[in-house]
Please model this.
Amino acid sequence: MEKGFLSIILHAHLPYVRHPEHDSFFEENWLFEAITECYLPLIGVLDRLLEDKVDYRLTLSLSPPLITMLRDELLTRRYLNHLNKLVELAEKEIIRTRKQPEYQKLARLYRRFFQNTLETYQNQYHCDLLSAFKKHHSAGNLELITSAATHGFLPLLSVSETAVRNQINIGVETFKLNFGYAPSGFWLPECAYYPGLEIALGEAGINYFFVDTHGIMNASESPRYGVYAPLDCGNGVAAFGRDPDSSKQVWSSQEGYPGDFDYREYYSDIGFDLEFDYIAPYILDGLTRINTGIKYHRVTGENLPKEIYQPKKALAKSKQHAQDFINKRQQQIDGLSANMDRPPIIVAPYDAELFGHWWFEGPHWLEHVLRLSGNTNGIQAISCSDYLSLQSSHQLATPSASTWGDQGYSSYWINEENDWIYPYLHKAEEDMEKLASDLQGLTVNPLQERALNQAARSILLAQASDWPFIMKSGTTSEYARKRITDHLARFNYLHDSIRKNRINERYLIALETMDNIFPEIDFRDFNP
Model:
């Protein structure tokens, strides 16, 4: 019998960004960078583990906006164009660095990397990454779960039970539509929980979810096993808590592995470092500097000139850090198992985009962790579903309100930068529910139904947690504000058009073209 278990969960999410009205759009690069640097490298890890017959378990949460964007034909075409330009840029870099052999060696590495990315994406998986993830689920190694429809921050939407229910149910239905089965687990956006949320999760068929450490430690009953065993919320839905030690080792900017001086420096990119005229054909509209993914320096150290990146040294360090991570989990389990009547489970949830995008060597680290987890005595990587099947009874308690955001609660999503949005969100939700209620039992014609469903899409897109987060962080605040106001304006236009029975089909088609998420949505679900 195993002394204890390790459950690594990667949450893959990006906001729904798709702009057919423009030839190119800066924020669409969020998706392109994540596919190149995170999702395809992760698939490469899973492919190698499968080929080597490694017995491992990993959990991946795919949010509905990301699922939709990965299947979108427009974004697929634009991504292929993006990749081809990167190959071309890497080839130009090989020529430019011909008198700098250390730099040219890296330029050749990037050309191979981009060419392999293009080959894998276009020829091996035919531009369908969901099929790649589904393959590894079918092989029994990858547990796939999902999140809320547009990653809405559920505690701040909870003034309406209907809003929360739709965020959960439409998220689950989107997953089922794309994968053909229902998810067992659910990633609460921002790990944001409030007591009672488990009811809506249970009604949607969810068996478990995750909260941050203090959500378990401050539960209604003191947790007998801390965060190392789940709590039963009282309706059979289990809450798993994040282990702070494994989190700090990977996340911490001061103590975490990604800050090691041998790893690649994210912020040193030729898109910003080289002369404008040279880089212009490969940046946004030839005007706005952006990351290209070609980075020549390592982290080095604070206030020191950046030194050249050495990939072999970095990969060797990722192996050392993987061994260190497993050793520390083993020590935890040795200490915990002596005082528990069941094997402890160490739950280690992370944003998937950390691995490869922010931490270039992250996928290699993860691969070695998963290889090592099958070769140690007393520790095994499993999913939370696996753990629930092994343990039939759990302590009854309700987690406390919590998030994994700054300071642990809701301050990052409601503050002086973004609190203005919530009265508008709540008013729009109320108007949508009243509209659906008023039309209950009445016959609507096809044009009205399309307008009603598009109004529902606009509500959901306005509710995304990404926009208030960006406003607080100050990264692309103007874009975030515009997205909120645009979606609310679209909803208000549609609402008034429906009420007055003056629907402009041309304008409706334009909105359907721009916001084509959730093809199966039914406005009747907004009837409270």
